[in-house]
Write a structure and sequence with these properties.
The chain is 53% helix and 11% strand. It is of the alpha/beta class. The C terminus is likely disordered.
Length: 346
C-alpha cells in the first residue's frame, strides 16, 4: 500500500483519515484520535498530508512536517465543492485529499509558534475591547433610563462619571451610584489590561525586523504591523501586493457575465480583524497624507474629489497592504481593482 496523499479531517477528539494512491484510488480509511494520527504518520513514508486550515491544524501540520511529510493546508470553502453526496467525516477527509491534488488549488502557509502567539494576543485584546464597549453601552443605558444624556465619546462619558461620583451631579439613587462605581472600576481595569497589550505590541514591533519595516508605511503602527506579521509571516504565499489586498477583502467583488465586468463593494473576505485594523489606520492617516506634497498625496486628493471618503479610506488601506514578500513597501499606487482572492485561514 503506497499512499501518495493522506486527507485528514481534524476533530476535537476523533479524526477521519482517507489515503489516496498515485492514481487517486482510495487505499486507506481510518478513524483515529489526534495522537493516533501522529503515530500513523510516523510509520508512513514521506507523502502529502492535507488538512483544512482550521483550529489546531497549524500545530498538527508542524509536527507532520518535522517527520518529513509535505503538509498542505486549504481553506474550507475550497474543499467543500469536492464533498460527494451526503456529508460525513469520511467523505470530508476524501474531499480534502482530492482537493489537495488539484494543480490550481491555493494553499495556506503553516504558521510558526511565534505567529500563533502573537495572533492569540491580538484576539485577547480584541475581546477586551469588545467587553469595554459593551460596558460603556450599558453605562449609557443606565444613565439614559434616568434622563441623563452624555455627549458621544468615551472620554466625555468618563469625565462625566468622575464628576457624578465626586458628588457634583447627584441625580441617581445611592444603590445605582454604587453600581456605577463598580462598573467604573471594571472599566479602569479593562483600560489597564488593554494598555498592557498595547505596550507589549509596541515593544515587539521595535524588536521584530519585519514589523519595524511595516511601521514605516503610513497608516501602519505597532498594532497593525504585529497583526500583519502574525497573519501573513513573510508573505511568500502571495505573488504580489495586490494578491494580499484581495485576500484581505479590500478589493471590489466582481460580477462579470457576457464579457461585461461589473464591480461591486469590497468582498470582505479573509482576515476580518486585520482588515478592520488596516481601515482604522488608513482613516487616521488620511487627513495628513492628503495634504502632503507627495505622489500619494496627489493621488488621494484626486480620489477625494471624485469618490466618497470611505471609498478613499479603503483604497488607502489596500495601498498600505501592497507589500513585497520580504515585507518591503512596493509603492503607493492604488490596487483598487478586482483581483483573484486568496485563501482565508483561521
Amino acid at each position: 500500500m503506497q499512499i501518495a496523499v493522506l486527507g485528514i479531517d481534524l476533530g476535537k477528539n476523533s479524526c477521519s483519515l482517507v489515503g489516496l494512491d498515485a492514481a487517486g484510488r482510495v487505499v486507506l480509511k481510518r478513524r483515529l484520535r489526534r495522537d493516533g494520527v501522529i503515530k500513523l504518520a510516523v510509520g508512513l513514508p514521506s507523502c502529502v498530508m492535507a488538512m483544512e486550515a482550521c483550529c489546531g491544524a497549524h500545530h498538527v501540520g508542524r509536527i507532520l512536517r518535522n517527520h518529513g511529510h509535505q503538509v498542505r493546508l486549504m481553506s474550507p470553502e475550497y474543499v467543500r465543492p469536492y464533498v460527494k453526496a451526503q456529508k460525513n467525516d469520511d467523505r470530508d477527509a476524501e474531499a480534502i485529499a482530492e482537493a489537495a491534488t488539484r494543480p490550481t488549488m491555493r494553499f495556506v502557509e503553516l504558521k510558526s509558534e511565534e505567529q500563533l502567539d502573537m495572533q492569540s494576543l491580538h484576539r485577547a485584546r480584541d475581546r477586551l475591547v469588545g467587553e469595554r464597549t459593551a460596558l460603556i453601552n450599558q453605562l449609557r443605558a443606565i444613565l439614559l433610563e434616568r434622563g441623563i444624556v452624555v455627549q458621544q465619546g468615551r472620554r466625555k462619558l468618563q469625565h462625566y462619571l468622575e464628576l457624578m461620583l465626586a458628588g457634583e451631579h447627584v441625580t441617581i439613587s445611592s444603590r445605582t451610584r454604587m453600581l456605577v462605581h463598580d462598573m467604573c472600576t471594571e472599566w479602569h481595569e479593562l483600560d489597564r489590561r488593554i494598555l498592557a497589550f498595547d505596550e507589549e505590541f509596541s515593544t515587539r514591533a521595535r524588536l521584530d525586523p519585519a514589523a519595524r519595516l511595516l511601521t514605516t508605511i503610513p497608516g501602519i503602527g505597532p498594532m497593525n504591523a504585529t497583526a500583519m506579521v502574525a497573519a501573513i509571516g513573510n508573505a511568500e504565499t502571495f505573488g504580489r501586493g495586490r494578491d494580499l489586498a484581495a485576500w484581505l477583502g479590500l478589493v471590489p467583488k466582481q460580477m462579470t457575465t457576457g464579457g461585461k465586468p461589473k464591480l461591486l463593494g469590497i468582498s470582505k473576505r479573509g482576515n476580518v480583524y486585520l482588515r478592520k485594523m488596516l481601515i482604522h489606520g488608513a482613516r487616521a492617516a488620511l487627513p495628513a497624507l492628503s495634504k502632503s506634497e507627495t505622489p500619494m498625496g496627489g493621488w488621494l486628493r484626486g480620489l477625494l474629489a471624485r469618490a466618497h471618503v470611505n471609498t478613499v479610506v479603503v483604497a488607502l488601506a489596500a495601498a498600505d497592504s501592497d507589500v513585497k514578500p520580504a515585507g518591503i513597501p512596493i509603492n503607493c499606487r492604488p490596487p483598487f481593482r478586482s483581483e483573484a482572492g486568496r485563501d482565508s485561514d483561521q
